[in-house]
Amino acid sequence: MLSKLQQHYGNHFSLHTADHPEQYYWFADQAGVTFGIAKTAITSSELDLLHSLFTEAETDTRLSEQQIFWKNVISGDLQGEHPQVRFRFIHFFLKNDLSDQDAFLEAVSGIFPDEVTVLFMSGHHGVLIEPKTNETEELPYDQVKSVLTADFYTDLDLFIGRWMDSYAEGAEQFRIEREMFSSIRPFLPPQEVYCREDLIPYLLLLHLDKSASQFISNLIPDELFKDRDLIHSIKIFLECNMNLSMAAKKLYIHRNSLQYRVDKFIEKTGIDVKQFKQAVAVYHALISRETTIS
Q: Which residue has the higher pLDDT, 152 or 125?
């Protein structure tokens, strides 16, 4: 049967694996032999017939050699000697499970070069593995969210991990990065891409005891939180590196209006948020209040 299928589909037929497995439909015969047929070469009626004759192959059998390699790195099961390259994980989290992971993989493959590997860890969480070479340029991660959100109608969060120089540390680092980001993801403000420095203030505050957290929150008087526009404006002002023009543009208000709100906050609290130390303290107080309320 397989020989006839191979004869019929020619170069569109593949046994066991392929360079781009996401571009194939994968099946297994009664003997457990896995084969794939290119999606572009098969009609809907032929696909229905194949589903009636064969079972759909398990996910692992559809992984490329590159995907299997990185899956072993992440699980800590990598065996033997391998040429070492510098690499990092870019974790992605979807609001909803994807109904068509193959289409998602195909879309991601169209954005990034071949060196970037994509692995799904669950229906809503996966990872991009980016190796660093002498020719590596900064990849357009800031474009990924808007492109994929538009194509698949689901929200997407991206978290960029740190560069590593050893496959041996990959499994533990993957676990730490995933756990840290997952724990504070509900509290993070929306943005295209998250880095480690975005997580640190939230990680510090979420692991404080109740007394320390309350001490920080009380830096700003309770009555000021009734003025939501003021509090929101100060937070945006701090997130824009205390740049009035940038923050005003983000808030869609005139620069003078924002200046008035900053001056009002300073007058009410006695804390000059235009100075670094005071700005850091206020920002932590705002985050502490947000995480406590959430």
A: 125
